[in-house]
């Protein structure tokens, strides 16, 4: 089976690029002597997880209970659920742990800490630390940090943080500064808790940009990164990887032609309507058009409009797209996490157009 045999739109995953991205991140963190707990919220695939875990301790990160249950069913037990837990979801976690899992939860809430603490067998729990994004977490210098720790008692295992504001950084120097801010704040929280008599064994941090650009990871026990595996146009723009690091594209068919434009069957649902590159040095609209082999044969041909099931590609005058209705091309996405979310499988290639595998993915919450 080849790409031309597939229904469109669909996800194409280039295993050669995926492997190169994984090896690059592993090499970066190996030089810093830091274990990686890969975040599977982008890939949501056991086949990708097995590649990402090669040479790593074996733990992963997830964002949903559906992911946790899926990966546990495939034999991965050490799982960090990196979204603040709620009492009802806590019950689900406990059931999964009773079934053989070792799911670690996070909280930044005193009342939730109290609910965790009264469980007969509470899950290992990390306190979430705000390292500058101001999305979730407590300040490493706050009284609230010590109060939550006191309530958690023996359930407290460590601290974690996520520098989501690294996505606003530009250039290696600024990224390394954000990485240092991430490291210093979460390790400061860990040290305060240790001074207060708490046993802290996990000090977890990470995003793909900070993992890529960090210069010092002293005091951390692990880094979490995820989108580095697949890459996308935005990550290329902020220098997490090069333009050759985009492993996932959307295969689409031409369904109409207009002067200077091509209409395709990949719209907002297949591509997402993420516009993250709008704030980057180069704006790629809703995605960059590539040829069937994933090469930039069409120059700067961009998806300028994305309806539910229709995409409108504006051609590059210097590289006109000469495809009939039914012709195939691929779209590199702005944000691969969002793009992948509407699809249930990957059609895997190894740099060519032959389908070498079909890998299912888990969706939902």
Detailed description of the structure:
With 365 residues, the chain is an alpha/beta fold. It has two domains: 3-11 and 241-360, D-serine dehydratase-like domain (Lyase, Ornithine Decarboxylase, Chain A, domain 1); 16-228, TIM Barrel (Alpha-Beta Barrel), CATH 3.20.20.10. The chain is built from eleven helices and 16 strands. The strands form two sheets. Strands 1, 9, 10, 11, 12, 13, 14, 15 and 16 form a nine-stranded mixed beta sheet that branches. The chain has a seven-stranded parallel beta sheet with strand order 2-3-4-5-6-7-8. A hairpin with a 7-residue loop joins strand 15 and strand 16 (357-360). The mean pLDDT is 96.
Radius of gyration: 22 Å
Distance between the termini: 32 Å
Summarize the biggest pleated sheet. Answer: 9 strands, mixed
Q: Per the principal axes of the C-alpha atoms, what is the gross shape?
A: elongated
Question: Percent range for helical residues?
Answer: 25-40%
CATH architecture of the largest domain: Alpha-Beta Barrel
- Which CATH class of the largest domain is shown? Alpha Beta
Low-confidence stretches: none
Number of helices, where a helix is a run of at least 4 consecutive DSSP H or I residues: 11
- In the residues, how many domains can be counted? 2
